[in-house]
Structures are given as C-alpha cells and as structure tokens.
Amino acid sequence: MYLGIDLGTSAIKAVLIDATGKVRATASHALAVSNPQPRWSEQDPHAWWTAAQAAIEQVLAGAGREGISPRQIAGIGLSGQMHGATVLDKADRVLRPAILWNDGRCDAQCREIESWPGFQEITGNLAMPGFTAPKLLWLREHEPAVFERIAKVLLPKDYLRLGLTGEYATDVSDAAGTLWLNVAERRWSKRMLEATGLSLDAMPTVYEGNAVTGYLSQALADRWGMQRVPVAAGGGDNAAGAVGVGIVRHKQAMLSLGTSGVYFAVSDGYLARPEQAVHSFCHALPGTWHLMSVMLSAASCLDFTAGLSGYGSVATMLADAEQAGMRHDGPVFLPYLSGERTPHNDVHACGAFTGLRADTSRTDLANATLEGVGLGLLDGIEAVDAAGLHADDITVIGGGSRSAYWTQMLADIIGRPLTLRAGGEVGAALGAARLAHLAAEPGATLADVCEMPEVTAVCQPNLSRHAYYREHRQPKFRALYSQLAGVYRVEGAV
C-alpha cells in the first residue's frame, strides 16, 4: 500500500492505493485562508500539520474498516500547493503565517527581479507575485526583523515533510516555482538566491520526485502503527496531479479545473515562453519538464457568481444554466477575480460582467461565467502552443470536471477532445502515492505505476460552436481585457 498526501489551499487530502494503483481509501480535512489585507493570502503552517495528521488518521481508519493494516503501507508521497513561503528560524519555529500562491502583494518586488541581468535565462519564467522569491524580497523590505531570523525557507508540502521525517527536502517540480531554481539544470541557482539575500544553506535539498528524501519518524510510526517507511520527494500539486492521471510523457496534456485553472503539457526537453507568462517547470519525474499556463480563478469563479446571484449552490447554478442555455448576445465575464497570470501577468486585473441589459437574468450571468473561464483557459492553451508544445487530446481533472455541461462547453471553446478518466478528482494525492510507489520499489517502472486510468467519458468539440466562440466571443473577450486593463492599473496604484 502507498499513501499520498496533497496539501491544497482549501483542504488536505489523503489517498491510499494498493500495488495495482487501485484507490482503497480517501480522506480530507478542510483548511481556512486568511486575507488580512487586500491582495494578501496567508495560512498558518501549524494548521497544515494538524490537518495532515487528521487526514492521515482518517484514511488509516477507513482502510482499517476494509481490513487493511497500517503496516501494509510501504511508502508515503507528498504533493501540495506551490510557491508558498514558509519561513522558519534555527529551531524550526514558524516565524509568520505562510504567504500563499495567490497572494498579490509583491508586484514591486517582481519588477525588481525582472531587472536583474540574466534572470529569465536562469529561471525560464517571468517574476510573478505568486512565486516565492518576490515574497522573500517583500519580507526583507517590510518585515526585516522576520527576514533576519530566517534559517530555512520551505514550500508548503515540505513543511509537512519536516514534520513527518525531520528532513529539509523538496522536489524539482515544486522548486521550479520559486524563481530560485535553474530549471534547465534542475538545481538551485546560487546567483538567484544571493540576489534575494539568501544562501544555499536556507534551502532544502532538491530531489527528483520519485526519490527517497527520508523516513517516517519512529514516534509517528509507533503512533500510527506503521513501519518507518520512506517518504518520497513528491511533486507540486500540478505535477503530482499529472502523475496521478498518467500525464508523464512528451506531448501528453491535462486541464485542471480547481480553485485555479491550469493547463499542463509534458515535454522531454526544456522549453520556455516567459513573454506570455507561460510557466516553464521541471516535471516530478527525471528527464521531463512541462509548460503550464495558469489562471488564478477558475472554478472559484463559479462560487463567486453563485453567491452573487443568490443561488444556494454551484450545483443548482449549473443545472439552471444548462436548462436555460447560452444566449448568443449574452453578457461577457472576465474571470480575473485575483489578478491573472497567463497570458497577462497582471496583478491588478479584476473581474467584470459587461454587456448587461434590462432582461439579463442570473442564468445569463452563470453561463457568462462558465464561458469566461473557458476563454481564459483558451488564452493559456494557445500560449503553450506558441512555445512549441501542442497536444491534440487533453485529459480533464479537478472538481470542475464533474459538470458534463461545463466540460462540453470547454471542449467547444478549446476545439479539442477533452477526456475524463477515473480518479481525476483525487489526482494530486493519487500522484503523490504513485511517486511513493516508485520511490519505495526501485524496480518499479512508469509503465507499471503511471499508466493512464480508464476513460470514463470523452467530450468531442462541436465544430460549429467552436467557430462561434473563435469568431465572436474570443475577440470580444480579449478586447474587453485590453480596454479595461488601464483602469485596473490606475485603481491598483491608488
């Protein structure tokens, strides 16, 4: 048995799989996000650790009801939200709440990083407020007393690793999102660290995702009735999610419909396109990289509109939207509720409904939201295509994939088949468990462990609908962002 733990933004998930890859037990524990100031997003790392222990104990209890003993577990893997800055002192005490991936406070620090000679050649990425390095520059400027006490900087999942094993370690896929990694060479850049006021001593050791980074502590092994099993390096949430659905080979791709929206395409070599805010990261497996487009608000836009429109739930809103259907002259929604990454890299971007009329209904707002997220995702997919990595078939994962109506709309907007597979909703935790399997069993191969789960549905694009989106809605969507972007920047500067 192999245990995967995924530290998300809204919850920690745990999944237990057997040697065949079958999911045998799952559990989750909710997390809260703090927004103490506009554009700030933080969490308490102690809450991560408390929730992780609860999720592990829940999954062990569920497995026990199926006759599975904790001593059958042979390895643990970790995945988690990327980019978060968890800062510790010399005694491993947390110095302040972790600054999260969707925090937008450090755009000034990003401009500073962009001015550093050779920055993009080393990192393969633009400097974005969500990334880790600008957060540390912000701390150095605004909380110098905290910065001076920093002994270690850990990414969120790697704080859990410290609690599980006592080791400071990370994996290449998560490290690539810090702006401290030389992505092509898969190692820390001393030059980038020193420019941020840090040294290699402050960094965890970098491993490939399927490598062993340490072993479960004796105290926790005794508490949970487990052996001192190896803990794999694991992966950032998107890389682990890709492993979970078998997206591990060149030109395979997936679309993740979670709080954020992510398009992830695998490459067998290093590629980059920073001018369109495409993320160029290492994959969690040796010898592979990936390009990724990210929109900060995807399925979270549905929650926003459901609340704004008085729907009791997103499910009710989706059913209402499907029954009403989409008007050809309906409003347009810009999904930039938390700023945006690909392709705009605009921390001041805001959401908007435009084209409202006296007869606009809440179902029109619902359909506009679904369409607006889809058009934002299309922008990101086309940016990855322009980097030289085109995928003809895309696997869809995440909570948003539960809606057949929305998935079909997305296929029509994108113009490519969207494939749903078993296990897509626990992809990151499943991927972490698969990486644990690879780490704990040296002879295991990708063919053995990372096969693609069975297809549950395929949404083929309606070509006439795709032409409509391309010719009418996409140009309007893009023009509206361009027209309003100046307003956002002025407001953001006040």
From TrEMBL:
All residue ranges annotated as the Carbohydrate kinase FGGY N-terminal domain in the record: 1-244
- State the UniProt keywords alphabetically: ATP-binding, Carbohydrate metabolism, Kinase, Nucleotide-binding, Transferase, Xylose metabolism
Segments forming domain Carbohydrate kinase FGGY C-terminal: 253-439
For the keyword Methyltransferase, the answer is no
Name a GO molecular-function annotation: D-xylulokinase activity
Q: What does this protein do?
A: Catalyzes the phosphorylation of D-xylulose to D-xylulose 5-phosphate.
Homology family: Belongs to the FGGY kinase family.
Q: What is this protein called?
A: Xylulose kinase
Name the gene.
xylB
